[in-house]
Amino acid sequence: MKVFSGIQPTNELHIGNYLGAIKQWVDLQNQAECVFCIVDWHAITVPYDTKVLQTKIHEVAAVYLASGIDPQKSIIFVQSQVKEHAELAWLLNTITPLGDLQRMTQFKDKSAKFLQNINAGLLNYPVLMAADVLLYQTDVVPVGEDQKQHVELTREIARRFNSKFSEVFKLPKAQIPKIGARIMSLTEPTKKMSKTDKAESRIGLFDSPEQIKEKIGSATTDSGKEIRYNPKEKPGISNLLTIYSSFSNQSIKDLEKEFTDQSYQLFKQKLADLLIETLEPFRAQKAKLESNPSQLNEILTDGANHARAIAQDTIQKARSAMGLN
Ligand code: AMP
Ligand code: TRP
To answer: Is the CB of residue 181 below 6 angstroms from any atom belonging to ligand 1?
Structure first.
């Protein structure tokens, strides 16, 4: 089985990225050939700061390592170091209907958010993502709920290519976690936690103990007093229960029992303590890598070399299927 996934080096990674995506990757690396990418070409489709892009790339790599992704078992690399991604994206663009791209939820959201910068890259984003996945003959794409639509489009593009030219690509499937696929904002629990909203709305993976305490303490809760899971009526508490359950590996039912007749305040204190403890390795790994950046560069160069070898094999097949050479 082959697995591919990626994260954009934009803003700061948060617990939604970890629970929705990365946590599943760690388990998969013992049962499959895994490729985990830092998708910098995707990140530049929205306004960004050129001076900090390389730092953000290193931070994503630090998160991968701190989560337990092992470079001996899995390939970790930066997208722009393997040019075949751009080449395949171009080829796939020619068989992707404009209408399919215009109806993507993420395109609609981002073009509403960045009205001054609706560039062609933002529209073609899912085609580059399809190229990422298809180059590695991927079976499974472990992602959060919001990426399901993009993986379905990838599958459709692969199907279309195979029937128009010849059987070059495997048809991939999204794998969405049962709990944690959609972690909500701490301040507006009916919206998903996002890298681009205000800092109080999310817990960053590198947040200090003080920041964690403060953000959990001021997270929106619901009227009433009960600690009960009911996303419709109690979206705030339900989101905090989901986070608690995912990090402690206790079921939501058990947590409801444990916190029967307890106050929101005590529940939040316990959750903050849990997060401070479980996120400690992220802070430590970041500090370690900052003191020795050459180690990280070696991992990424080595990863790119391995990735390129696989990608070149697939792109050659795609070129010749299309009559190019
Ligand atoms: P992005 O932040 O868009 O680069 O997303 C990276 C990965 O994290 C993707 O697999 C997303 O589906 C996942 N993800 C992003 N936000 C959330 C969230 N609030 N809850 C769960 N998963 C998320
Ligand atoms: N679009 C994904 C996101 O926003 C990131 C991504 C790019 C990705 N290429 C990918 C995810 C390939 C999985 C597989 O989260």
So the answer is: yes
